[in-house]
């Protein structure tokens, strides 16, 4: 009996998606919830699980093909007499879901960052091929030898991850979470940390080693035509709509952030921020969250005949990826402690750059930060993310001459640029918000006083 699986709407009203990569082939056996294909929508790359158990009869769309929602993309032979009641029910209302827990041994689930918008059950990619050392199997002890060999307990800071048929690896919970989000198989990485533990740098190196090199341009080619689709197509439409719908105003402010840079260095030394990347962006985010609490209108949206003021902040962080610009957001960022906010920002940006952001991560934002400083840029006029009324650009931090107590001294200086929708935010309110963000970065103690 052939069962066809139709392309579902994996987002909010999406109408089409591109087939990025098939994980199965014709004639291959598949099980329920096995990942069968990766698709790219206007929002993200999503892995789709199979709703049927059986044998792949045909792939009805090629890689690189754009398919309309509701069009069949795969046919599965479920076999004669198979009970397909459950499978049919799944197919009728299919949404992406992580595969069921495998039968191999897994580490005990760690409590990580519940509540900031990163899904604990996010789908992971199947282990990549070709990365495991050639002697990995040969170096593994036989069952009898393993039983008699003394076992040395790992350091408490790094928990071992034991998987069936593999050598246990050491990695701290944040590192395991990062590897899961980036689709990296920890068992295939040689750790460089204490006692061979795997560090965040090891995970990033593994991702970088698999990055496909850019295709060389053939000799004599003078022009190329790049199809506009997926994220880039959606971003272009959104930016045009925003630029020509919302009347943009941009204000600039130079700020002495010497105290902020000192605070960043001190935070990095605190145990609460161990294994977490602490950057100036963290304090910029905290300052904007504090300003949004002081001036709620900056965290609102225009709804035609009314303004919707939101007393929660889904903080968007603009991220440049190989697929184009995306803006994932940290849900309810205003409720997070500073260490949790740091972890949330780290996971959000790393997941985005790896192309693993899910549609839910890219919707519902209320205000955005774009960090143009990482590109060596001082300032710009950012375009407001659709559905929001403000966006803050954070420029590079540079050593500049600054007047302090009547004396010219070198200081760490950055430029902030705040674009806002003049239908909602007038010049006075926009100026207050930008002034307060700058004041908090000039003296981080103000964040405590104003929080």
From TrEMBL:
Catalytic activity, EC: 2.3.1.-
Requisite cofactors: (R)-lipoate
SUPFAM superfamilies: CoA-dependent acyltransferases, Peripheral subunit-binding domain of 2-oxo acid dehydrogenase complex, Single hybrid motif
Gene Ontology cellular component terms for the protein in this record: cytoplasm
Spans traversing the lipid bilayer: none
Enzyme class: transferase
UniProt domain Lipoyl-binding: residue ranges: 2-77
UniProt keyword annotation of Ion transport present: no
Disordered: annotated segments: 124-157
Keyword terms of this UniProt record: Acyltransferase, Lipoyl, Transferase
Pfam families: 2-oxoacid_dh (PF00198), Biotin_lipoyl (PF00364), E3_binding (PF02817)
Annotated Low complexity bias: 133-151
Domain Peripheral subunit-binding (PSBD): 170-207
Entry GO MF terms: acetyltransferase activity; lipoic acid binding
Entry annotated with the keyword Cytoplasm: no
Top-rank taxon, per record: Bacteria
Family assignment from sequence similarity: Belongs to the 2-oxoacid dehydrogenase family.
Name of the molecule in the record: Dihydrolipoamide acetyltransferase component of pyruvate dehydrogenase complex
Organism: Sphaerisporangium album
Source species taxonomy: Bacteria, Bacillati, Actinomycetota, Actinomycetes, Streptosporangiales
